[in-house]
Automatic annotation (TrEMBL):
<keyword id="KW-0245">EGF-like domain</keyword>
<protein>
    <recommendedName>
        <fullName>Receptor-like serine/threonine-protein kinase</fullName>
        <ecNumber>2.7.11.1</ecNumber>
    </recommendedName>
</protein>
<keyword id="KW-0808">Transferase</keyword>
<dbReference type="Pfam" id="PF07714">
    <property type="entry name" value="PK_Tyr_Ser-Thr"/>
</dbReference>
<keyword id="KW-0067">ATP-binding</keyword>
<dbReference type="InterPro" id="IPR024171">
    <property type="entry name" value="SRK-like_kinase"/>
</dbReference>
<dbReference type="GO" id="GO:0005524">
    <property type="term" value="F:ATP binding"/>
</dbReference>
<dbReference type="InterPro" id="IPR011009">
    <property type="entry name" value="Kinase-like_dom_sf"/>
</dbReference>
<dbReference type="InterPro" id="IPR000719">
    <property type="entry name" value="Prot_kinase_dom"/>
</dbReference>
<dbReference type="InterPro" id="IPR036426">
    <property type="entry name" value="Bulb-type_lectin_dom_sf"/>
</dbReference>
<feature type="domain" description="Bulb-type lectin">
    <location>
        <begin position="30"/>
        <end position="151"/>
    </location>
</feature>
<keyword id="KW-0430">Lectin</keyword>
<dbReference type="InterPro" id="IPR001480">
    <property type="entry name" value="Bulb-type_lectin_dom"/>
</dbReference>
<keyword id="KW-0732">Signal</keyword>
<keyword id="KW-0472">Membrane</keyword>
<dbReference type="GO" id="GO:0030246">
    <property type="term" value="F:carbohydrate binding"/>
</dbReference>
<dbReference type="GO" id="GO:0004674">
    <property type="term" value="F:protein serine/threonine kinase activity"/>
</dbReference>
Length: 810
């Protein structure tokens, strides 16, 4: 986003804004003892101009329940902008009272306290006020603010409101359900503004699906009184979110809301009929992110935008809609974003499903896909055989066919989307004829069940009627086995330190790693395959470890033995530029890897911190990463493709030697070694084009990611940086090629005197990076060739434009 004169206007407005907030606001004081009852919406505290009100609102779908809220009071819609009890609405005759002890308290109709502000016992208000800004404030005796609703937003922010670090907005669950939904907008401690999907329960978060990419530089989000929203940065610049021209707040009401579909939108509403020329007398959307949430939300776990078994689409107004496939209906008719259920009895797995296969058919769905639910894949195969495989498989709910490849998927189906870019043929399994809307048959007692019951009775009779001495011996044997197992676990944790550094890979229980990490308390990082936690093993001395908890990376049906075999193969890798795998856990649903701990953190924190690292150190780090990839690609007993090379996955030891971590995780997904597309793997910005083109995945995907990383190392900046004054510099890979083509490489390292004194090496490294970024994977060099070019062993030829060869394989 361009840095324009508009930003200068923003910073001229900031002092005025601060002055306005410091100066005493015009308000109507609400004294202690004032009470509002949940009877109707006429009883409320209204701001001096009448534009906002605080009180109880009927829930749209239930007149007997009330929400304690703030809303726009003058417009017919009475749009809610804040609520105190969104997850616990109260019944009629509940009340909110500014009690005499100085607290604002919500009571239910039985008189039980539901909500209270301020929470601190010593903080007591002398009065309250509903301001014209939409901010509810509690004031002390000297009229200073001791609590305000602006500091605890729900899903909306208003002009004059500021989000400081850390802050978040949480979406509603649906249009008529104000309870917390599955999307959050977060201004994080590191300064990055991100959109996340979250489960409806608990504090866990999935990966982000939109970001301003301002980690390390972002400061606060300001919605100024002119209607512009922007993110200020530590260096004094800002990133504008609102487009360049916006209607005046004098003529239009403004709000920005994280809607229940996961999109942050800025809306305007005409204040008077005089303002309505060209505008509807309703809320109009003037800005939103992301552009297509259906495509943006794309994670291995979670339901996606619309819930399980549904698919997401944009209507003609670019609004998000959710749809059920044929034979399915909404779980909740009042919430189309809540997912869909089957309206038929699923295919029975009796005799493997072959008996009922003739009762089902596959319906083709155009431009629809559930991209991350594969549990089986066939190649090469024709469409007829793909159909047959799905019909005969009782687990198969959807078959997807393209280019001699067949993917089978089962319910629940997640991340469903409709998009005209979907070129694969999606085949949905539904019953033939009128078999839909059947109820499941009552359980019957088969001959097999009777035989099983008879056998159980016989076994029980033998056990309970046998010799008491035999039972005693059996109990004694079981006790000895348990004691031996416990002793062996204890011995394993008391081994000499040298055993931790040997070739053997240790097997841990989940409980042991839970204890070693203090309940997975300290999260070091989070990548495409899971979170990493800091821990310690207490042997004869203390060993710090990094524990990666894998997020469903092993395909369903893969045996524990196969997982452990793959882990053992990864554990046999030994190279100075690879993070060392010490052990693993493979216990039920828990699959974890234990690595040695790296004291200097990740390359991301090293490169993108406040202090620019030494040029010579950066060149040695780049070379070390290249050598580590050569080992994975060409020197292991079986080739390992990393699939997620990025600065977070490069760790630095105490000597700043780079160590590649996370390698082999893609292999643990039981991916076909010639075609491994079961969904895009890796981190945005580092993913090679072939992931999006359904092409064979080879080691060249790592070469592409290394090219992006190499440019970041050269320039000490992220591949994507929004809010730069020069828009041509936003995407590093494109700008770097332009600088090379125009022989202006000095611009890439303009603030680095050491690098500017070594422009010959800068040029060689940039040329290598451009070769790595070729869109056609066959044009990219191997990592061995990359290493030789970086070392100066071989000459680097003039690189082609990265995208000039796309027609060769399109």
């Amino acid at each position: 986003m361009a840095h324009s004169a508009l930003y200068d206007l923003h910073f001229l407005l900031i002092p005025l804004f601060l002055l306005a907030t410091i100066a005493p606001s015009i308000h109507q004081s609400i004294p202690l003892g004032t009470t509002i009852f949940a009877v109707d919406e006429n009883s409320s505290w209204v701001s001096p101009s009448g534009e906002f009100a605080f009180g109880f609102r009927h829930l749209p779908n239930n007149d007997s329940l009330f929400l304690l809220a703030i809303w726009f009071h003058k417009i017919p819609e009475r749009t809610v902008v804040w609520s105190a009890n969104r997850d616990s609405p109260v019944q009629r005759e509940s009340r909110v009272e500014l009690v005499n002890n100085g607290h604002l308290v919500l009571y239910n109709r039985e008189g039980r306290e539901i909500w209270k502000k301020p929470k601190a016992i010593n903080a007591r208000a002398a009065s309250a006020s509903m301001l014209d800004t939409g901010n509810l404030v509690l004031l002390s005796m000297d009229s200073s603010t001791i609590w305000e609703s602006f500091n605890e937003p729900t899903d909306t922010i208003l002009p004059s409101q500021t989000l400081t670090k850390p802050s978040k907005l949480s979406s509603r669950r649906s249009e008529k359900d104000y309870s917390k939904g599955q999307f959050e907008l977060r201004l994080q401690e590191d300064g990055d503004l991100m959109l996340y999907t979250v489960p409806l329960e608990g504090e866990f978060t999935y990966s982000n699906y939109w970001s301003t990419n301002t980690a390390g530089s972002g400061s606060q989000v300001i919605f100024n009184e002119s209607g512009y929203i922007y993110l200020t940065q530590i260096n004094g610049t800002s990133v504008s979110l609102t487009p360049g021209n916006i209607v005046s707040t004098q003529e239009f009401y403004h709000r920005a809301t994280l809607d229940f579909d996961g999109v942050i939108r800025q809306y305007v509403y005409p204040r008077t009929l005089d303002s309505t020329v060209g505008w509807a007398q309703s809320w109009s959307n003037v800005w939103y992110q992301p552009p297509n949430v259906c495509l943006a939300v794309f994670f291995a776990i979670g339901s996606g935008t619309c819930g399980f078994n549904s698919y997401c689409a944009l209507d003609e107004n670019q609004r998000t809609t959710c749809h059920c496939p044929p034979g399915y209906s909404y779980l909740d008719p009042n919430n189309t974003f809540g997912g869909c259920k089957q309206d038929f009895v699923p295919q029975s797995c009796e005799s493997g499903g072959s008996i009922e296969a003739s009762q089902f058919e596959l319906k083709e769905m155009r431009n629809v896909d559930w991209p991350l639910n594969d549990y089986e894949r066939y190649f090469p195969i024709n469409e007829n055989l793909c159909r047959q495989e799905c019909l005969l498989d009782c687990f198969c709910a959807v078959a997807v066919f393209k280019d001699d490849t067949c993917w089978k998927k089962k319910v629940p189906l997640g991340n469903g989307k409709m998009d005209y870019g979907v070129s694969r043929k999606t085949l949905l399994k539904t019953p033939r004829g009128n078999l839909t809307l059947q109820t499941a048959p009552p359980p019957t007692s088969s001959c097999r069940e009777k035989k099983d019951r008879t056998a159980l009775i016989l076994i029980g009779s033998v056990l309970f009627g046998g010799s008491g001495l035999l039972n005693l011996l059996l109990l004694l044997a079981i006790s000895m086995v348990l004691l031996y197992s416990r002793h062996q676990r204890k011995v394993r944790f008391q081994r000499h330190d040298a055993s931790m550094l040997g070739i053997r890979i240790l097997s841990f229980t989940f409980k042991e790693l839970e204890q070693a990490t203090n309940g997975f308390k300290e999260e070091l990082d989070r990548g495409a395959f899971g979170a990493i936690y800091k821990g310690a093993l207490v042997l004869e001395s203390r060993h710090l470890i990094a524990v990666k908890m894998l997020d469903n990376v092993v395909a369903e049906g893969e045996s524990n033995k196969e997982f452990e075999t793959e882990v053992a193969a990864i554990g046999q890798t030994h190279h100075k530029n690879l993070a060392r795998l010490l052990g693993f856990c493979n216990e039920g649903l828990h699959q974890l890897l234990v690595y040695e701990f790296m004291s200097s953190g990740s390359l991301a924190s090293f490169l993108f911190g406040s202090i620019r690292p030494n040029w010579n150190q950066r060149t040695q780090i780049a070379l070390g990463i290249a050598r580590g990839l050569v080992y994975l690609h060409e020197e292991c007993s079986s080739q390992i493709i990393h699939c997620d090379i990025n600065p977070q996955n490069i760790l630095l030891d105490e000597s700043l030697t780079p160590r590649i971590s996370g390698f082999g995780l893609a292999k643990l997904m039981k991916a076909d070694q010639t075609r491994s597309i079961t969904g895009i793997r890796g981190t945005r910005g580092y993913v090679s084009p072939e992931w999006f083109m359904d092409m064979p995945i080879t080691a060249k995907v790592d070469v592409y990611s290394f090219g992006v990383l190499l440019l970041e190392i050269i320039c000490c900046r992220r591949n994507l940086e929004m809010g730069l004054e020069n828009e041509e510099r936003v995407i590093l890979t494109e700008w770097a090629y332009d600088c090379y083509a125009e022989t202006r490489l000095d611009l890439l390292v303009e603030n680095d005197e050491d690098a500017k004194d070594d422009l010959k090496r800068v040029e060689r490294m940039v040329m290598v990076a451009i070769w790595c970024l070729q869109e056609n994977p066959t044009m990219r060099p191997s990592m061995m060739k990359v290493t030789e070019m970086l070392e100066g062993v071989v000459e680097v030829s003039k690189p082609l434009h990265p995208y000039s060869t796309s027609s060769v394989f399109s």
